[in-house]
Amino acid sequence: MEGGAKGKEKKKPLDVFNDFKARHAGLLKALTTDVEEFFKLCDPGKENLCLYGLPNGQWEVKLPAEDLPPSLPDPVVGINFARDGMPQKEWLSFIAYHCDAWLLSVAFHASGRFGFDKADREKLFDMINDFPTIHNLMTDDPETQQKEQPTVTDKRKNKSKPNPSKRASESQGKLTKLQKKYEEEEDDNGEDIGEEEEGEEGWDIEKDDEEMQDETLCGACGEKYQEDEFWICCDKCETWFHGECVKITAATAEYIKQYKCRPCSSKRYQS
Q: Is residue 52 within 8 Å of residue 62, measured between CB atoms?
């Protein structure tokens, strides 16, 4: 499916579907029969790695394409960062549904590149819809699940995955108790505890933060910070980026111990 040059036979929906199946097989192989090798390659100490399914039915873990725009849509970036931050079964499931999304994007990309009309797209996606997803195969097939190596779960058998909402509610409960305690002390002493600590200096800090946010520009698109947007900072050059620009979500960022932007990653590999 890497073709598309003039003079070649026009691609048909079946050609794109066969490419889809081959890439699907490669990704499934990485997450099941080759899971031990895949696990080792996804070292959290390395840069933002991606899992690619190849047209020959194999798979590959590597950095995202450097050419922009890429010849194919990029898979989810940074799968290695979350490897040790969650149970292995959950990590593989997380990658599986991102693989399914990537396969669909590659197929849709091909349908546009090869000039498919509505009827051709309908044929293509009818075939895809009748094909089981990687995530379905990972979660529904007992034999597939048994092939997962127990490395992470053995090391972390006494540790459960952090639950942000649970921790937030627990913290809020503790805060409420402290508030009640301080309110009772204020009633007894007739003083407002903590009010002296909250002076002009605290307001200046908040003001500085707001000014810094207003002046911060995304290192990828050059746009200013907007309220309620997720941003991530490179730990190497300290440049801020929209999560959307570097394809990292807030959920994925929770498992990133040290983030390096693409320019800094490239510098490391060039040196």
A: yes
- Using CA atoms, how far residue 75 sits from 29, 170, 185, in Å, is 16, 36, 56
Q: Are 20 and 128 in contact (CB under 8 A)?
A: yes
Q: How far apart are CA 147 and CA 36, in angstroms?
A: 9
- The C-alpha atoms of residue 25 and residue 53 are separated, in whole angstroms, by 8
Q: How confident is the model at residue 219 (pLDDT cuts 50, 70, 90)?
A: confident
Question: Is residue 214's pLDDT more than 80?
Answer: no
The CA-atom distances, in angstroms, between 30 and each of 9, 96, 102, 200, 232 are: 32, 10, 15, 57, 29
pLDDT > 90 in the chain, percent = 34
Question: In sequence order, which residues have a C-beta less than 8 Å from that of residue 243 and are 6 or more positions away?
Answer: 229, 230, 231, 232, 249, 250, 253
Q: Mention every residue, 6+ apart, whose C-beta is less than 8 A from residue 149.
A: 35, 36, 39, 88
| pTM exceeding the 0.85 threshold for the entire prediction | no
- Lowest model confidence (mean pLDDT) among 51-55, 65-69, 145-149, 259-263: 145-149
Report how far residue 82's alpha carbon sits from residue 248's, in angstroms, rounded to the nearest whole number: 12
